[in-house]
Predict the structure.
Amino acid sequence: MTAHPDTTANTADSTDPKTLTFPGRPRIAIVGSGALGSYYGARLAQHGQDVRFLMRSDLEHVREHGLDVRSHAGDFQLPQVQAFGSTEEIGPCDLVIISLKTTANAALTRLLPPLLHPGTVVLTLQNGLGNEEFLATLHPARQVLGGVCFVCINRLSPGVISHTAEGDIALGEFSGPALPRTRAIGAMLEAAGIPCRVSDSLAAVRWRKLVWNIPFNGLAITGGGITTDLILQDPALAKAVRGLMEEAIGAAAALGHPLPDGWADIQINRTPAMGAYRPSSMIDFVEGREVEVEAIWGEPCRRAQSAGASSGRMEMLYWMIQSAVARRQAGAGNGG
C-alpha cells in the first residue's frame, strides 16, 4: 500500500532504524475515539494537526456537534471534527494512535491495514502489557511505539469528555532506545499542550503505570464499584494497595526494570488529588463491558512468575477479578 499523495513519510533506508524520520505535519488517525482517544486527538487538532477520528456510537453526534472537552487545564470545543466510520474512509496515515480497549485488539487485524503505508508509525496508548508485541505482528516492530498515559478522564456523553487531573504521556520504542523520530512525536505532543517525556525503556514506563493500575483498578472492581478515595479511606484496602504496589515494583525490578525509590509513596500520595475518581476498568465492569483483565493483571502476573518474583497478592487479585467478571456474566446470562 502506498502513502497518500501529500505525505512526507519516511523514505530513508528502512534497514537502519536511526534513519527513520517523521513528517513535520503528519496525517494522524485516532483508532478508538472514546474518552482517551478523543481527548488527546482533540488536543492535537486544537493546535492545528491533521487528525482523523475513527468513531462508532458517537459518529453522527460528533459530525453534527463536534467535540466538547471539559478540562482542568482549560475547556475547549472543536465545532468541526474529521470523524469517520471506517478506516478505509480515513486512508493511509503517518501516525496511527491506538486507544481502543485491549479487549478489542482482535479487531485491529481488520482496522489497521487501510491506515498503513511503509513509513506509518503505530503508537499504542493502551493499558497493561503485551500490546506492542501484538502490533508487531501486524506492522514492522521498528515502527511500533508505546505510550503510557497518566490521566484522569471520562466520557460524560456523546462527544463530551471530562478531563479532571494530570494528562501526561510517556513514550518509548518497542524495539529499542528512543530514536529522533520518537522525540519528534514527543515534541509534537508537547506543542499541543500534552506534557510528554520520552523514555529509553518502554517496559519500565509500563510498569510505572501498572504500579497504580493493578491495585486501584482491581480493588475498585472487587470492592463492588468503589472510587479511589473510598479505597484509601478504608484501612484494609489502603494496606492492600501498598502491598500490591510493592509486589509490582519487585516484579519490575526482577524483570530488569527498576523503578524510582519511593515509587509506591509517590503513587499513593498523588491519588487523593483525583477526588472520587472512577477507574476505567471499574466503569467497564459496572456497565457490563469487557474488562482488560489479561493486559492489566494476567500478563503482569505471568511475567512476574517467569522472573521468579513474589506475586501472591497480584495473583489473588487476578483470580478475584476473574471470578467477579464470571459472576457478572453468569448473572447477565440468567437475566440478573
In short: The two ends are 49 Å apart (CA to CA). Residues 23 and 229 are 43 Å apart (CA to CA). The longest strand covers residues 144-157.
